[in-house]
Fold:
Amino acid sequence: MSKDARREQLLEAALAAFLRGGYHATHVEDIVKEAGVARGTFYLHFDSKHAVFSVLVDRMLQVFLDVRPEFPEPDVMKSKDAAAILAHSYRTILEAFWQHRRLLRLLLEEAVGLEKGFAKKLEAHYREWHERVHHTIAYLQDRGVARKDIDVHFVAELVIGIVERITRTYLFARKKPDLDALVDQLVAFEMRGIGGG
Amino acid sequence: MSKDARREQLLEAALAAFLRGGYHATHVEDIVKEAGVARGTFYLHFDSKHAVFSVLVDRMLQVFLDVRPEFPEPDVMKSKDAAAILAHSYRTILEAFWQHRRLLRLLLEEAVGLEKGFAKKLEAHYREWHERVHHTIAYLQDRGVARKDIDVHFVAELVIGIVERITRTYLFARKKPDLDALVDQLVAFEMRGIGGG
Amino acid sequence: MSKDARREQLLEAALAAFLRGGYHATHVEDIVKEAGVARGTFYLHFDSKHAVFSVLVDRMLQVFLDVRPEFPEPDVMKSKDAAAILAHSYRTILEAFWQHRRLLRLLLEEAVGLEKGFAKKLEAHYREWHERVHHTIAYLQDRGVARKDIDVHFVAELVIGIVERITRTYLFARKKPDLDALVDQLVAFEMRGIGGG
Amino acid sequence: MSKDARREQLLEAALAAFLRGGYHATHVEDIVKEAGVARGTFYLHFDSKHAVFSVLVDRMLQVFLDVRPEFPEPDVMKSKDAAAILAHSYRTILEAFWQHRRLLRLLLEEAVGLEKGFAKKLEAHYREWHERVHHTIAYLQDRGVARKDIDVHFVAELVIGIVERITRTYLFARKKPDLDALVDQLVAFEMRGIGGG
DNA sequence: GATGAATGAGTTTTCATTCAT
DNA sequence: AATGAATGAAAACTCATTCAT
Structure:
């Protein structure tokens, strides 16, 4: 087996093991047993248990950075267009999150409360996320389809919280949820709230 | 020092230590140093490191269970009443969360990814939370101030996500945020969304 | 047992173990077995196997630095006085070396070819030794009882070599050698060489 | 590349690696990297890391055994002849030592404190050396150019110590020392000591 | 009750050696 | 002959928990 293939296999095994037991409860022994190789083989490919975890986290952050929903720049927008833009954006994100839900789960459930380095990485990750959401909302404001009296930074945080919760509740479930339905509900809530009964 | 006082002191020291370094990176030595007692003393009051952590988590869950915003049951409501009800509810919750933010932080940042038992406890906690939010929204629907076409369970999850995010972003900050302003923004978003620019 | 007594006991056990098997072949297990304590106890007193070795080496170097043969400063000297001075000096050194021969043996047989730090320490040690010998010979030259045409630095090195060899051959033996006889021979050789048969 | 050439190349690489880092700190990986071959190749030529080291030590001991300064057997000698004989002897030895100083350094700095086998080899080596020096001094005594009242065995040890020290101090230096000057000083010291100022 | 030295099972990590290609 | 990925026994080190004082 080639060096790269073995490395990939070990990463996959590590991910499975970490998801099963969490970072601390997972021993290198568990990872290599999962991969079906000897203890030493692990250390041919990674410096330490921490290192393999770090690679997985980096990979997840990269997955996130690669999600770039594109949207058109119409001069005149209607509220319906705004909903379409949000829907596209959410759809893209949730699709990617579903695709990489195992990595994502590791990030959300394990990379929290770990050694120094991760805190900074995660902070940067959230800042980037905030940036993107902020940009989208400001864009909608500019085009007159979002209210001007909202605090964009505040709302950006709310949106992040919403997507995180959705991810935990629906994407970490066993079977694939109806993403379209999720997105519709999401957009409806974000555009109109619950009021107006 | 009385047995209870010593126990309380150790709990406080443990909380401080866990918040500083996280569950795994915190050693019993750190806790007793923080409390200024000898190592053996710790075991006179708690069975294990795990046990003291468990008490802290239980205490936090209890804090949450004790938060019971009461609201009146008018037969006829206006949208303004709905906003008031939500505001009261959020205000109560955020006030309690701020009050116990250190315990809460432990819950959010450390009780994740720990041994089996906690996962179940947390799940129950979220179920309870969901129940309450669900009840509030259904109440508003019943009284005609919330739309009927929303998926109440889905929205309940969104609301939980929102509050979690707000908690992490604003309540874990160093100085006390303007809770009234936070609540106003929250309610506005929940009632009307961002649309209607 | 007090902390200090335990530490001393472990140092003694480590010295015995290192002398028996050498640094690398000696495992922490051997040291603690020698001391009759558990593995963890070792680490209560020393950070690592390397650390305990380092303490022993430092202790040996200190023993050497503490050897300070004093000699009078007569204005007029005879060759006989010179011999007496050298004899006193050698006697003092060999006495100290015999006293601490186990530590010394560790230094000569193990601290050579070990990690970075020791090389520098040893170099400093030899420089100091050279300094002392050089000073003694120059003193004898000044007082007219040693020839002026010798290279004092060179001879200082020879003397160091001589003492090292004597140490290895006679002091590391099982029973105490006749130090007086050794010293007499040493002085005779240093003063007159082997010539003049 | 022929089998012998490859073996020689590996020996050379091993020597370089051992001198750089010492026996234990040098890994087979370092040796094969130095030689520019794969790890497995090493084991085609040597049974173990220990074996290659052993070959190098044997080779050094052989170098020493091959040093056989010859000297004439004049019936009547003068002190000057004795000096010439000693000078010739030292010159031959130091020349050979300089020639093979890298191997020699390995012997002096690494073959100490290693597994059982080496201790015995080294002991035999020193015994042989002692024999030779002893023989030379006794020869000079017999011919009336060395004093009769010296302990020949003792002096032989001193001479060995002197040569060892000279070797460490001057031959392991970067540039070639003036061997003739060294030898002159050596002989002067051995024949006359430092006395007679 | 309090102390803190002692314990030892449990983990990570290393690296000489093997062997299928 | 050469390769280099794989092996796994062997070691160092950690730290929650115990217990004699």
Observations:
- Chain D is about 75% helix and 0% strand.
- The first helix of chain D runs from residue 3 to 21.
- Chains D and A do not touch (no CB pair under 8 Å).
